[in-house]
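Recap quiz, item 2
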Amino acid sequence: MNAEEAAKFEELLNPRGIAIIGATENPMSGGYSFIRAYLTSTYPQDKIYPINPKRNEVFGLKAYPNLQSIPYPVDYAIIGIPKEIILETLESCVEKGVKLVHIFTAGFSELVGYKEEGKKLEQAMSQITKGKLRILGPNCMGIYIPKNGLVLAAELPVGLENSGKIAFVSQSGAFTHIFTIMSHYNGLKFSKMFSYGNGIDINCPEILEYLNEHDSDTEIIFQYLEGFRDKKTAKRYYKVLKNLKKPLILLKGGLTEAGSRVTMSHTSSLAGTIEIYNSLIKQMGIIEVHSLQEALDALKLFYFCKPYPKGNRVGLIGGGGGNSVMIADIFARAGLKVPNLDRETESQIQSWIGEQFINGTISCNPIDLNAAGFDNRILKKVIKAFDDSPQIDVLVIFENIDFLIGFAKKMKLEGLSKGFYRFFVRLKKKLKKNIIIISVPVIKEADVLAEAFEVEKLLFGAEIPVMNSNEGTANALAKLIQYTEFIKKNNL
Amino acid sequence: MNAEEAAKFEELLNPRGIAIIGATENPMSGGYSFIRAYLTSTYPQDKIYPINPKRNEVFGLKAYPNLQSIPYPVDYAIIGIPKEIILETLESCVEKGVKLVHIFTAGFSELVGYKEEGKKLEQAMSQITKGKLRILGPNCMGIYIPKNGLVLAAELPVGLENSGKIAFVSQSGAFTHIFTIMSHYNGLKFSKMFSYGNGIDINCPEILEYLNEHDSDTEIIFQYLEGFRDKKTAKRYYKVLKNLKKPLILLKGGLTEAGSRVTMSHTSSLAGTIEIYNSLIKQMGIIEVHSLQEALDALKLFYFCKPYPKGNRVGLIGGGGGNSVMIADIFARAGLKVPNLDRETESQIQSWIGEQFINGTISCNPIDLNAAGFDNRILKKVIKAFDDSPQIDVLVIFENIDFLIGFAKKMKLEGLSKGFYRFFVRLKKKLKKNIIIISVPVIKEADVLAEAFEVEKLLFGAEIPVMNSNEGTANALAKLIQYTEFIKKNNL
């Protein structure tokens, strides 16, 4: 993809007007969710054109019987009508001069019992549109670009304040919606998101190439991939991987026999063999994940830990002896080092903890501060000691935020948790090393959680990743460090 | 442990009166949390005796200057005073005829820089009390028996309605508190819980022996173990394991070098080698977990899936194509089978889904019902087909409860989620096979979560395990099936 092609691709993502073909107020219909989506977006409402021959208005927006009756430019069309009228709809898109068509409609080459007919229909769709407009889909959710207000579901975070540096390219439509929501509550923001489904025209290699080489808004790429329609697409994909300039977190579906059986019905894709995949992962420095949860954990560390840690030696700071042992085990098992501090630092820490708190604490790495952890002066000194220690590359604090809030409420010690997390926000700026907080969820009470989420927001705002699983954090951190080693080794 | 010894042990757990030595209203003091704990328990308030020579009352309860001034029997004493006066306190316990002493106070043989003195102090404590009373601790949280109202923290679930069949034996004190709360929000209830810390008298082998062979209230045992004080204790432990009659879920701390370094400071225990441990796990059919989260997942399946599944062939039913692929991969990777249904069942399912819904669905195993999943008549037929299928041993439904509730609110389809989960409660009674629901958390909004937790409670009440992680469920299910195979193979 050269600069001109990239500019052309980018033009597709900045439509002057959007038609929603099949827009309706009937929630059982495909066009419903997209009109609802755009009603709750920042995209200019006067440039959204519902197409519905039976209605004058849809949700208060003027409706048009067809594309041709819209007296304004329409660059982007979202199609939610039955496949039986897909060909004539595409013809009218060509006629109107639409640049990009997103086909939400499903039931083409991926549908069991209809695969052959579906394939033929897809070929006819390509023929009608080739060289005239670009197609995203069919069987997909389309595009989400918070900066422009392009959305794929209702009430997504939009606007500049909700724009970030992560791109997500997904062969699954539902993943884009659910992962946007998961990410939103985990402090992550997106540059661009693409769901391309059966990918009969625009497919993941082209999108990745654009994101990797030409999109300055994107720093990290997350991809959900099931497989490829044909060898040509696969080849282009491998070519893109060879020139990776940005971290690519890859969730590859269909690596087991059970999973690959489904990819054929889902997006009409051959999942490929695990051997090819494994060698790719190794050679290209791709970051492998096996679930959205793992992807979320990895993205949080890649997003917030800047610059990346220099090595794999972790300093663990928290409360609870059993917790300390368990977490040390988990981090060591993930291939990370939990080294001893030097004797001097250890006895320094002991002296800071002092007589008042010493019983029940453990002054090594991991350190169990017990009640001393709530004395901010002690905690600050300890964290600074870990930050200064030449034995440590990255700091991990383990503390159950919700449990602490609930406990403080229960024990009528409301002051306890309040200042605790603001302390980290202030401290963060003074630290040389990355600091990660692990807060495993314990309590399920709405009032406690509301408070806990406020705390998390505060921490995300200060670029401190709050993680919700010990194993998840250890594994994600191991991936981050592996990646930095790959980069170093290959002089990237 | 013979019947007489068991009866004697059990007597310790049914105290006629409880003294809290060091009870105070000062939250920074050790005795504070236990008096708060008993004030919020069902244990008869008139049989709780705060000991505090400086006060006439503690939180409205009559305080006594010492044990001797209590004119009633005291069978159980909780000690939260400084270790400097531990010996004279134990002497007065002996004098009063106390049967069981729980020493919360820490800073004995586990404290770095005090290990030798601590050991000597512990020996003196044993000498004073040997043959006269039993000690739990020091450096521990004591006992939680919801049935009797014995508690180790404030506002724990107590009473018969909060009593269940799980026992937890923990070398970590903090784990008992936090795990009680985690479990409470996950539908799990306990028979008995023991935190024994340094275990200078009562230690895990004795507790396990009692639970395994004599306690009819306990069906499943969960243990957090760091190590043993001496070879005698280790030997007795192995003897108990050889006679295991109940499933033992074991979280072994200190299996890595990093973790084992901490166990010495935490509970003064040698963690033992991983080789001995691994051979034990295999030979005894012990269920191994590596974190509280894994323990929770395993316990939920062992607790709710009765009778245990007959084999490892999983039927996956849910929504979302990418989700279906990902979850099939995760279950297959955990060593479970996700078999094909027979052609006949598949085409039956396709016919039930029908023309209206067929686009975007996948009618194999895993099955992606898409919107058809919200038509209860279709869903019921599909689940029954999986329940009847000779290819399937256990049913797993994947559906994000919070996301569904949030989505329904957002799309103004409030009716959508409401009836959905009551449907499962009704259906559960008619199924031959176990049904497990996986609901990975997505949304962090208090109002949505409050509703989601109500749904979870409803499902737990119907003995349907609601799991919060795909990987966690797959791994826990693999453990459950491994255990049933072990039982079968060994004719247990």
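Chain B touches chain A through 94 residues (CB under 8 Å).
The two ends of chain B are 21 Å apart (CA to CA).
End of item.
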